[in-house]
C-alpha cells in the first residue's frame, strides 16, 4: 500500500481500545507499514515501544513524521526502514543523527523532505477524508518540487496559485502519553506536536502510558489534551516508557544518559537506551517537580566574565530587536534564539510573548535555561499548550508571529537558505538536518531573522545549492495581500549583520562586530559585499545586560553551543552537562 493511497484501509477504529503490553503493541506493526512517531524532540518519545518494535524484525517501514531524530536512529539501526519522509532530523544539542546522515548521503534509503505545512495539511486531508487540502506556497524556496505529490494549482475561487496536497495516510502511529483511563481515553500534557493530526490519519494508533487511572480521573486536571478512546487502537502500561527522553510531570530528560549512549560505539543504541536496572532514576523524577520560583530563588550562577564575547554580543543585539509587542517563536534547536528572547523579556520587553517548543508552550516566563529543567519550567509557566497543527493555523498562517530567529548552514546573497544538503568538492553529499518549518514561516513572520555563527566563504555564498527557505515575499506590495506584516530581514554572523534590501533583493552589511574590519568581512564572504552608507559597529552590551544574560538567563552558557566547531562540541557538552547536574542537584536539595 502506498502512502496517501485512497484505497487504504478504513481509518475507523473501535470505540474502545484493547489493553496489552509493550510487546503486544510491537507485534501489531506490520512489514511495509506507513509508520508515524509522536512526541517532540526529547519529549514524550515512545522509546520503550520503538525498542520493542526494533526487536520484532519488522522491515520496509515507510517512516513518516515531522522529525526523525532518536526514533528514526533506532529504526535505522534495526534495518527496519525502507523510505523516509520528514521535515527535520536532529539530535538536538548532540548534533546530526549519524545513521540518518549515512543513509541519506550514500542514497541507501530514499529521503523526501516535506514542508511542515504541507505535511500538516496532508495529514488533515486524511483525517477529514478529503481528496486534497490547500496550503500557502513556500515562496522563494525550492521546497515545493521536493514535497512528494504536492503541486501548485489555481485556487478555484480566487484563481491565485495555491499549493495542494493529497491525503497522507498512515498504517500505524505510535506515541507515548502521560495517562490513559480504563475506557481507553488518553491524556497528553504539554505540547502535542502533530500527535492529533497523525492519530487522525492513521489506521491504528498504538499508545504507551505512564499510568492507567479510573474512568473520570482525566477530567480533573484542566491543562491536558485528550485523545478520545475511539481514536486509539491499543494501549500498554509502560512506566518510564519515554526514558531517556522526558515525560512531564513524571520525569525530565536524562541528557547524561543520552550523551553516553551517543558516545558509546561498542553496543547497539537500542541496548544503551533502556531503563537502568534500578528503574527510573529518582533525580529525574524529583527534577520534574522543581518550580520556576524555586530556581529563581537559588543563589545565582554565572557563566562568563570580563568583556562581552561574540555570542553575548549577538544575543544582546537580537534581543534589542524585540519589544513589548513582539511574539517570538523558538523553533527546533535554537539555544541562541531562546537566550535572546528571554533576555529581552527579562529586561526591556516584559510584555512580549515567547513561545517555545515550536509554539507548544505559549507565553512562557523568562526562566533560566537550565538544560534538564527548561522544558518543565516552560511547561509550568506557559499560559497554554498547543499542537504544531494548531500553531500553524492560529499563529503562523495568520501572520501573528513577529520573530523567529533560526540558524542556517548556508546563506546566499539573496538571503536564501540551505539546510538540506551540501555538495562536497569530491561530488558527495553532506546531509543537513532539513528545513523544519522554515520554508513556510520565512514568509509568514513579520521579521525574517537568520544567524550564521561562523561566517566563511562556505557559509555565505553567491548562490545556495538548494533553497530550503527564503523570503520570497519581501515588499509590502507582496506581503499585504497575503495578510502578512512587512518587517526586517536580517542575517547575524560573528563578523557582521546583513539586511536584505527591498530594492536590490540582496544582502548589504549594516553593522560590523566590534573590532572587525571591512576587508575581513569581504575576505570571508563568498560574494561581493556591499556596505550600507550608515554602516556602524554593533554596540557592546552594558554590564547590567551582561549580568542578566550570564546569571539570570543562561547560567550554563548554552548559547556557546552555536559557536563552536564539531571538534570542540563534545568537550563543551560535557562541561555543560556537569554544570547542569550540579544545578539540578542544588534545586532538588533546596526542594527537600
UniProtKB/TrEMBL annotation:
UniProt keywords, alphabetically: Transferase
InterPro entries attached to this UniProt entry: CoA_trans_fam_I (IPR004165), NagB/RpiA_transferase-like (IPR037171)
GO molecular function: transferase activity
Keyword ATP-binding (UniProt): no
Cross-referenced SUPFAM superfamilies: NagB/RpiA/CoA transferase-like
Pfam family, one: CoA_trans
EC number: 2.8.3.-
Keyword flag Transferase: yes
PANTHER family reported for this sequence: ACETATE COA-TRANSFERASE YDIF (PTHR43293), CHOLESTEROL RING-CLEAVING HYDROLASE IPDB SUBUNIT (PTHR43293:SF3)
Full protein name: CoA-transferase
